[in-house]
Amino acid sequence: MTSSIAPSPSPSSAPVLPVLAEVVRSGFTEGHHRGSLVVLAADGSVELALGDPAAPVFPRSSNKPMQAAAILRAGLDLSGERLALAAASHSGEDFHLALVRTMLAEHGLEAGDLQTPPDLPLDPVEAEAYLAAGGVREPLTMNCSGKHAAMLAVCVRNGWDTASYLDPSHPLQRLVGEVVAEAAGEPVAAVGTDGCGAPLMAIGLVGLARAFRAFVLAEPGTAERRVADAMRAHPEYVAGTRRPDTWLMREVPGTLSKMGAEAVQAVALPDGRALAFKIDDGSIRALGPVLARSLELLGVDAPVVSRIGRAPLTGGDAVVGGIRAAF
Which PANTHER family match (predicted)? Predict the structure, then answer.
């Protein structure tokens, strides 16, 4: 596992990626979102590749299932809602925060042990309510606090240093790198720092899709399958009540879904079909339409697909357009 971020290509050498989504206002296309995407068939072969899906990217929170699997491999006995929350980018709803506090207390830890940066709840509705109640930015309310609570807990369990649990050389983070590379079927191309402060491993989108496929097809009882099963059984703990990952895992049984910052998304269906994509400019607003179209290409026919794909644009108080997939 390398200890530095690989240099980015110069502007002249960077590939021109295809348009994955168009921004259409009043019938006029006013913008585009480019990116890369891969769709895998049930046997794991590449069925569709757009852009450069083999090029390394930072999957951001789409790496969380692998991080959770590493925590299990390190010996922490998590299951159910606790394991789902360990792989979460939670919305900061009351039930999320309550379980983070419980997980910390169960291992003699406190919210002050978290090294997540102070933040507001991720969900805008929850953030408004939290501020109205007099809340301030805290490490606990940051959307990665469940993952960090689990990381701290496994350190306590193994007698590892808790102050340095985010150091790339920490035993836990070295294990995370091994799990990511194993699941993706390719070496980690670079290591950076995620928004929550945790080490972040770069892999290609093909590798990311392979990893999600590996989790849903893993043998029962393995760390990978335990993570996938917990996320699928408790999707509201993985995201929140108003989030697409929750809707998809709840309404299409057996589906594993996890988005990441900078508009990354990975999904695997129970038969091994999978997808991963990244919007190059990091625009989350394009994620829903691209995800919905990708699910259609995978043959998912459920009302939730159109719900996920809605991305209206307003003019005054009226809807005057929207963002739509372009592939």
Answer: L-ASPARAGINASE, PUTATIVE (AFU_ORTHOLOGUE AFUA_3G11890)-RELATED
Cβ proximity of 40 and 278 under 8 Å: no
Place of tokens 């607003």: 285
**Among candidates 196, 168, 158, which has minimal Cα distance to 71?**
158
- Cross-strand partners of 192: 200
Q: Mean pLDDT per segment of 10 residues, for the chain of length 327 residues?
A: 46 82 98 98 98 98 98 98 98 98 98 98 98 98 98 98 98 98 98 98 98 98 98 98 98 98 98 98 98 96 97 97 98
Amino acid identity at 170? H
Nearest to 93 by CA among 143, 147, 159, 42: 143
Tokens of 163: 């102050």
Against a cut of 0.85, is the pTM above it?
yes
Residue 314 β-bridge partners? 319
Burial class (CB in 10 A: 0-12, 13-18, 19+), 153: buried
Question: In sequence order, which ranges of the chain are alpha helices (DSSP H)?
Answer: 64-73, 80-86, 94-105, 124-132, 145-158, 171-184, 205-217, 223-233, 235-238, 244-251, 287-297, 303-309
Q: Could you identify the residue written with the tokens 């335990």?
A: 226
Q: What class, spelled out in words, does domain 19-325 have in CATH? A: alpha beta
CA distance 207 to 54: 8
Q: CB of 146 within 8 A of CB of 100?
A: yes
Domain boundaries, given as residue ranges, for the chain: 19-325
